[in-house]
Structures are given as structure tokens and as C-alpha cells.
Design goal:
This protein is α+β, with helices and mostly antiparallel strands. It is built from eight helices and twelve strands.
């Protein structure tokens, strides 16, 4: 019921940014204009009233001085900028009135009691008329007693100025508000035009048209920066879409091969009636199933990394992680020689860091001839110390032009790193993503012989051996 009572009011409110901006500007200007109008009228009237009172007061003081010296009857009274003058003694008798005032009727019925000055504003004066009058009253001591001088001046100029100013404000105010509304409406429309163009372009972009971009206005303002940010976001979406489609295609291709081989082996096993051949066929099928399991596990891990799922982070001894990963590889074709430094503490997931070491060792074992070396140490830098893990082999190595491409998913180099060596081309990609997830890097660097893969991870603050510890790697 409360929502129903509020809905008519909400329908009256402006519904667009342009309308709200225009209404807000008009309301603000109207409030400022009203305050300025009242202030202007008040200041104008006060100034004109002060001028009229000053002229009347000056005339009254002159006449009062004449009365005090007894020269009022002898002098010829002249009026300057006033309407009338009346002089009344302490008994209420009119001593003089100029011009056209009844000489026997005092302006004020109260008799003067003491010398002083007063000012009054009368809506109608002794002479009548349409305008107000400002009357000053000066009481002074004379040889004949207290005498009061009344001097009045018409406020027709004040009233005329007030009327003229009020009429001008009454006409100019609405015109000014209309101008403000029109200008605000036009300016807001021009400012929001690019925003509407951006909205329309984004609304027309579908999942198959991520190559489209929104127009960037040449204004170099907030709207232009919004358009640039939107285009940057679209670039990332397009890149993510391309990577996803490529990943799905590569994954489908990699899954198709072992599934096809497995199906062939099973069909052959069904066709062969000799039980002595079944162990060999079943063994080959199990190998393909193991390859499928490994591939599915890698794909699941990549999906978790891409989804930026939080990892269980803890302080770890990286040397212990490396030693455990090396000790678990008892059946490797080529023996691994490890020289990890101790006491290097990093923050991360033990399972994922062990996976990084395992993938690097798998890659080295696949192409090594006689040896695989693992070294772990730290190096110092302006941003803090860094743990450095190196895995080298004496195989054919990685050409300089392919040292970034080997970290792409499902990538195998044509000759040395072919499918015949096993693997789906995901090991190094997973290792680099896991290193990046821990705030580190994985790169392929120069080596006298074979491949040299280097992992750099930030050392946990306040932990780890000195850069010169045995087995450490000094800064490269």
C-alpha cells in the first residue's frame, strides 16, 4: 500500500539524467534569483529611504536652529527636496506651516517633552496622495520653550523604483529561468549524446560481434575516458573469447586422439580371440586412460586458475617443497641433481607449488639426455628479496624465438618437443599460471646447453636465508 501511495509522486519526478539536470539547474537558479530579488529590493528601498530621510533631516535641523535662535519668524523659509514643514510649540500651537498645511492642526497630537530626533513613515501624508511619506521630527529648546519641527518628504521615488524593479524582476526572472532551462537542456543533451551512442553500440554487440568498438569522442573528458575504458574491456572480452574458443578446440583435439586410440584398442580386443594378446591390448588401453585422466586433471586445474579461485595460502619452506617433489621421482629416466637452499619462506599453496616443480621436472625429463639439475636460492632487489628456482637439462634446448611460445597452451615445438615425447602441451602453461597466481614469474632463459627454466617468487617478509647462502642463486 505504501508503494502505491508513492507511485504517483514518482511518476511526476524526471526520469532521465537530462531532465533531472535541467530541473535541478532551474530550481537552483530560481532559488538564487528569488533571494537576489528580495535582497535587491530591500537594498534599493533602504538606500532611497535613507537619502530621503537625510534630506528631510537636514532641512529640519536648519529650521530647528533658526527656532532656537529666535530667528524663525524673521527668516524666509525655503524648502529643498521636501514636501512640507510644520513647527509646533510645547502647548501644541502651530507656529508655522508650509505649504498648504492647516496652521491650527498639529501633525502629532502628543506634545514634545524633551529635545531629540525621530523618524516616521506614513502611508498617507498630511497632503494626501498615493505615495507614502517620510516625516522627521526634531525637538529643540527655544527662548519660548520646546519647539518641534516636522519635515516631510514624499516617497514617490522610492515607490516608483520599487515598482519598476519588481516589474523588471517579474518579467526578467521567468525569461532567465527559461534561458537556463533551454541552455541546460541543450548542453546536457550534447554532453550525454556520446553516452547514448556508447550505450546503443554496446547494446548491439553480441557474443559473436566482440570485434566492434564504441565511438570515442574527441573531447578528452570523462565521457571519452569512459569510451576508452569500454573499448579496453571489449578488447579483454574479445581476447578471452578467442582464448576460450581456441582452448575448447585444442582440448577437443587432444581428447579426440586418446579416445580414438582407446576405442581402436578395445575394438581389436573384442575382435581378437587369443587370450594371450589381451594383456597387451588392455595395457595399451590403460595407458590411454591414464593419459586421458592426466589431460582432464590439467584442464580442470586450468579452469580453476582462469576462474581465479582463491588458494589456501600459508607460509611454506620452498626448499622443503622442492626436496619433497624431487624425492618422489624415484623412477625417472634421468637422475635429478638438486641443490635447494634451506630457509626460503614463501607464501602460497604447497600443492600448487609442488605442481610447478613437478611440471618443470616432467618437461626436463622428457628432453634431457643425461642430467637434470635443480637449484634454489634468493637474490636481492629494491622491491625485496626474491626466491629463484632453476631447472636445467642437457637436451636440445629451446630456440630464443620460441621461449614465449612454449608457455602457450597445447603448444609443442615441431622437432624436439613433439607429441612423440608425450604430454599435451599444458605442463609449462600450467606452471606459469600457477607461478603468476603466487605473484611470481616463469621464464625460459639462456643456458650453455639444453633448456633453462627459471621461477621467481617473492620471499615472505622477514624470512629466508641471506643472498650468499650455500646453494643460493645471486642476482642475474
Amino acid at each position: 500500500m505504501r508503494l502505491l501511495r508513492r507511485s504517483p509522486l514518482r511518476r511526476l519526478l524526471p526520469s532521465t539524467v537530462r531532465a533531472r539536470a535541467t530541473a535541478g539547474a532551474v530550481l537552483v537558479v530560481a532559488a538564487a534569483l528569488a533571494l537576489a530579488s528580495f535582497a535587491l529590493l530591500g537594498l534599493l528601498e533602504a538606500n532611497l529611504l535613507r537619502n530621503a530621510e537625510r534630506d528631510a533631516m537636514r532641512q529640519a535641523e536648519t529650521i530647528a536652529r533658526l527656532a532656537a535662535t529666535g530667528e524663525l519668524q524673521k527668516s524666509r523659509m525655503t524648502l529643498h527636496g521636501v514636501e512640507f514643514v510644520q513647527v509646533v510649540n510645547a502647548r501644541g500651537r502651530v507656529l508655522g506651516a508650509y505649504p498648504n498645511l492647516a496652521e491650527d492642526v498639529p501633525l502629532a497630537p502628543v506634545k514634545p517633552l524633551r529635545p531629540g530626533k525621530q523618524s516616521h513613515t506614513w502611508n498617507t501624508g498630511p497632503l494626501g496622495g498615493e505615495h507614502r511619506q517620510r516625516v522627521v521630527q526634531v525637538t529643540t529648546q527655544t527662548p519660548q520653550g520646546l519647539v518641534t519641527v516636522f519635515v516631510g518628504t514624499s516617497l514617490r521615488d522610492v515607490d516608483a523604483a520599487d515598482d519598476t524593479t519588481a516589474a523588471a524582476l517579474a518579467v526578467g526572472g521567468p525569461l532567465l529561468l527559461a534561458t537556463v532551462a533551454l541552455v541546460t537542456w541543450r548542453v546536457t543533451g550534447r554532453a550525454l549524446g556520446p553516452v547514448e551512442a556508447i550505450r546503443a553500440e554496446v547494446a548491439g554487440i553480441s557474443d559473436r560481434e566482440l570485434h566492434r568498438r564504441v565511438p570515442v569522442p574527441p573531447t578528452h573528458d570523462e565521457v571519452a575516458r569512459l569510451a576508452q575504458t569500454m573499448n579496453t574491456t571489449l578488447d579483454r572480452l574479445e581476447s578471452a573469447g578467442i582464448r576460450q574458443r581456441r582452448f575448447i578446440a585444442d582440448a577437443s583435439h587432444e581428447l579426440r586422439s586418446p579416445i580414438t586410440v582407446l576405442r581402436t584398442q578395445l575394438e581389436v580386443a573384442l575382435a581378437v580371440r587369443d587370450p594371450e594378446l589381451w594383456p597387451e591390448l588392455i595395457g595399451g588401453a590403460l595407458q590411454d586412460i591414464e593419459r586421458l585422466q592426466q589431460l582432464c586433471s590439467d584442464l580442470l586445474l586450468l579452469a580453476r586458475i582462469d576462474a581465479a579461485q582463491p588458494m589456501a595460502s600459508a607460509r611454506l619452506d620452498l626448499g622443503a617443497v622442492v626436496r619433497d617433489a624431487v624425492a618422489a621421482r624415484l623412477g625417472d629416466r634421468v637422475p635429478v641433481r638438486a641443490e635447494p637452499a634451506g630457509g626460503i619462506t614463501v607464501r602460497g599453496s604447497e600443492l600448487w607449488l609442488a605442481r610447478v616443480v613437478t611440471n618443470l621436472l616432467d618437461n626436463a625429463q622428457r628432453f634431457a639426455v643425461r642430467r637434470v639439475d635443480v637449484a634454489l636460492g634468493v637474490c636481492g632487489g629494491p622491491g625485496g628479496r626474491t626466491a629463484v628456482l632453476e631447472v636445467t637439462d642437457d637436451g636440445p634446448g629451446i630456440p630464443p624465438g620460441d621461449r614465449e611460445r612454449v608457455f602457450e597452451r597445447f603448444t609443442r615445438l615441431d622437432d624436439a618437443r613433439s607429441r612423440d615425447h608425450g604430454g599435451a602441451g599444458l605442463g609449462l602453461a600450467i606452471a606459469r599460471d600457477l607461478a603468476a597466481h603466487h605473484g611470481g614469474t616463469l621464464t625460459a632463459e639462456d643456458s650453455p646447453r639444453g633448456a633453462r627454466l627459471v621461477v621467481r617468487l617473492p620471499v615472505a617478509e622477514g624470512e629466508g636465508p641471506s643472498p650468499g647462502a650455500p646453494g643460493g642463486v645471486r642476482g642475474r
